[in-house]
Amino acid sequence: MASSSPPLLALTTGEPAGVGPELVVQLAAAGELPARTVAVGDPALLAERAARLGVRLELQELAPGSSVPASAPGILPVWPVALHAPSRPGRLSVANAAYVLETLDVAIQACRVGQADAMVTAPLHKGVIIESGHAGFRGHTEYLRDACGIDEVVMMLATDRALHAHEASWVGGGALRVALATTHLPLREVADAVTASRLERILRILHADLVRWYGVKTPSIAVCGLNPHAGEGGHLGTEERDVIAPVLEALRAEGFALDGPLPADTLFTPRHLAGIDAVLAMYHDQGLPVLKYAGFGRAANVTLGLPFPRTSVDHGTALDLAGRGEADRGSLRVALALAAEMAGRGACRST
Q1: Are 184 and 222 part of one and the same domain?
Q2: Of 81, 114, 212, 268, which sees the most CB atoms within 10 A?
Q3: Binding positions for a divalent metal cation (predicted)?
Q4: For the whole model, what pTM was predicted?
């Protein structure tokens, strides 16, 4: 990464029938793309959405992986990827599932070979990708993990620091960050997936990337229990006693600052969040409802454990809003700003 110029962000435009393409053109037209940002998608699709919304925008088609100028209002550089079928707002097409995956592949490759410094993703539609024949598709996070040949990554959502600036005394760095020990699993499979080896790997990745990408010298992490009341001393489940607590004790002996296992219903309160840099929840709907209540539309999804920063929005494709120009672009704005910040910090560390 070159520290002499702003980091380059590769921004995939997501499901073509959703709000992703229009959020991208709106941000570009308003001059709200940070650093150097290149869209990865179909230029004709972006032009159509801009015209539909009455947005004046100049598209600059560039060869994938080529140099990208600094962002400027009203101009959107694009690494082109062609749609596989015509797209209309709000109407999914199985034929375009491969197009969505191709945009991801272009951005991933650019980041892996140093042509881009970070990757930001507009929302995709899991269902249509699964229906297209990718039965094992779980989402962006798992796809990135497999594409990069990595055994484990960590999903974390983080609110905009400005959202909690007045609460910085109890939210580390002014942001609420919630990482997940398990991600897109049916609830009945979660307990079996919360193993000692998985927890250790997740906590090591979370700790390392809080240092690497966020500049936290000694991360303080609060860890949820799995069961109500963190097992109530074994009366409501034994995973805390038999699995979670031993892992935390072993890592504390190495110098990790870990608090828990704590009951999830009281962890997300000012007293327990004081001085905490991140919370590790055991499953998707244990931690994310709290974070989204605190900052929906002003939060970003972060994939930790990759060789490059990757962020995304905290919402879905919003098919019902597509093409109407009514979708809130706040989350994508936060995801872009966070990716630029993370990539810039990584560049500084690499020089």
Answers
A1: yes
A2: 81
A3: 184, 229, 284
A4: 0.90
